[in-house]
């Protein structure tokens, strides 16, 4: 059993065959998926997908690409949506100094606002970071200082791509690290070393589908069936079995999103 903790199923790349892809993922042993709505106009679509497919839950956020759209009203809107059973997190939110077009100060302001709204709503957060780990970790340390997480984690550093010291600091701050297709890329030894240093009990599996396919599918559309290859890559990095990776990352994902293990969910 796997849990894909970060997908974009409402992406237009799935418009022609979304139902077929979901069915294939379930057959492949993907027990639950977390749909990430990273712009306000995507929030209601993510909730609707989760209602239609009971094995899908969702996270509602404001990607740093859209940081200039932050407002207090948006934070209040997140608080209202957080009362819905389909919503398990806030995100993705964060900092992007590589592709983000909004000013860094504006990104920080939006992130701080969304962190506050998520904390008020008692939601874990899904953090996007590209080229900004020093600023991000400093901001998270300042925000969460003295705050104990409601569960094991305050949230997750999505598609972790930082250094070993960033991995250890993120874990110390109460964050899980998201492991995606790049763990399977031959030249990513530094990433594998960082994940090994963080330890399996701090890691969750993601695909970021339809993006970031694992090595065997480079250049193709990604979906949650890629999790097994990602798990194999992680098992190699940690020098452990893929079964243990599946078991522990599933446990971590349930803790991250504060979901009950229960029994295997019915197809839907």
Report on the structure:
The chain is an alpha/beta fold and 268 residues long. It contains 9 helices and 8 strands. It has helices spanning 18-27, 43-52, 72-81, 104-120, 133-144, 164-172, 189-198, 227-238, 242-256; strands spanning 2-7, 30-37, 56-60, 87-96, 125-130, 155-157, 175-179, 203-205. An 8-stranded parallel β-sheet has the order 1-2-3-4-5-6-7-8. Strand 4 (87-96), helix 4 (104-120) and strand 5 (125-130) form a beta-alpha-beta unit. Helix 6 packs parallel to helix 7 (189-198) and helix 8 crosses helix 9 (242-256). The longest helix has 17 residues, at 104-120. Mean pLDDT is 96; it is low at 263-268.
Task: Explain the layout of strands and helices.
Layout: E1 2-7, H1 18-27, E2 30-37, H2 43-52, E3 56-60, H3 72-81, E4 87-96, H4 104-120, E5 125-130, H5 133-144, E6 155-157, H6 164-172, E7 175-179, H7 189-198, E8 203-205, H8 227-238, H9 242-256
Summed up:
This protein is an alpha/beta fold. It has helices spanning 18-27, 43-52, 72-81, 104-120, 133-144, 164-172, 189-198, 227-238, 242-256; strands spanning 2-7, 30-37, 56-60, 87-96, 125-130, 155-157, 175-179, 203-205. The chain has a single domain (2-256), classed as Metal-dependent hydrolases (TIM Barrel, Alpha-Beta Barrel), CATH 3.20.20.140.
